[in-house]
Design a protein that fits this description.
By secondary structure, the protein is mainly beta. It contains no helices and eleven strands.
Length: about 120
């Protein structure tokens, strides 16, 4: 069974940067889409950024211009570079993959806390 494992969460101050990484236990080319979601306390999980098999990317309006999603097919990883972090970015961040067989896989999540 394919697994996704996130790393890189932590606590930062407002305006600082943080990079999240997600390692897949299979080749990333099995995914037609990889994405990062987040869930803040008391809120629903929301889509943050996606990257398609052709490397096209899309972002939530709230993170556009501050976050960058990328993938490394050689290392089977997908990353999320987060800059100019704000308290509202505080959440558990989840890596997500959708395979060409339409199987959806989630990571366990990693906590990001932004304090002022």
């Amino acid at each position: 069974q394919v697994q996704l494992v996130e790393s890189g969460g932590g606590s930062v101050q407002v305006g600082e940067s943080l990079s999240l990484s997600c390692a897949a236990s299979a080749r990333t080319f099995i995914f037609k889409r990889l994405a990062w979601y987040r869930q803040a306390p008391g809120k629903q999980r929301e889509l943050v950024a996606t990257i398609a098999s052709g490397s096209n990317t899309a972002y939530a309006d709230s993170v556009k211009g501050r976050f960058t999603i990328s993938k490394d097919n050689a290392k089977n990883t997908v990353s999320l570079q987060m800059n100019s972090l704000q308290p509202e970015d505080t959440a558990v961040y989840y890596c997500n993959g959708m395979t060409y067989g339409n199987i959806e896989i989630w990571g366990q999540g990693t906590l990001v806390t932004v304090s002022s």
